[in-house]
């Protein structure tokens, strides 16, 4: 009987050692799997900033003000020509840049430009019916996945109905361009859109155009009430929280999700607009 008990004890000890080894192996494998999954996560931290042709601060000052956010890509509107974008990119630590071909509405020093951590290629100027309003487009790759970036500065129709109709046609032209590429492209559109998104009290036809093709502003996912915030006019204290959130990061929620983002409040504004940003993760 004692011999049988000893045998059972030895078998139990061997079994426990085997179980312990397998438990450690499974734990090690779970750590490896988690690390691999983390490595496969593709994120893009994007920002947009209308710098008001850099009249209130130099390119270096603007870049240094944003550097701590560690952006991957920044889309500028109303950016000066020349080497301004190269200078702001250097201050931001973003070595790759493209400068749009046309200035907004034909004004001096109001280009759309892009700076990026990763190389930019296939630059294109997408016409919104004419050269007065365009989207500056470039592609980049993040962990091997191609992402298309658009820097925009939309027109604002206000003079009369003809001016409003012209604006509507231009925005519709650009949205149609995006619509044809939604299935194949992963795209981010960032800049000064000159419209406030729809809310419970009022719909905006231009915002609804983007919704129709499956795109949305980052504010929706972030739960930010645009009626209680503003991105314009940063220079006027009385305009604080006036609902003029007209600068956006637009993306396709079926392909990306928003993890974080917001409006950057500067103690001393460097432009009449506030920078906006969003941390996006590809699904």
TrEMBL record:
Domain Endonuclease/exonuclease/phosphatase residue range list: 48-273
Molecular function per GO: catalytic activity
InterPro entries: Endo/exonu/phosph_ase_sf, Endo/exonuclease/phosphatase
Protein name: Endonuclease/exonuclease/phosphatase domain-containing protein
Lineage of the organism: Bacteria, Pseudomonadati, Bacteroidota, Bacteroidia, Marinilabiliales
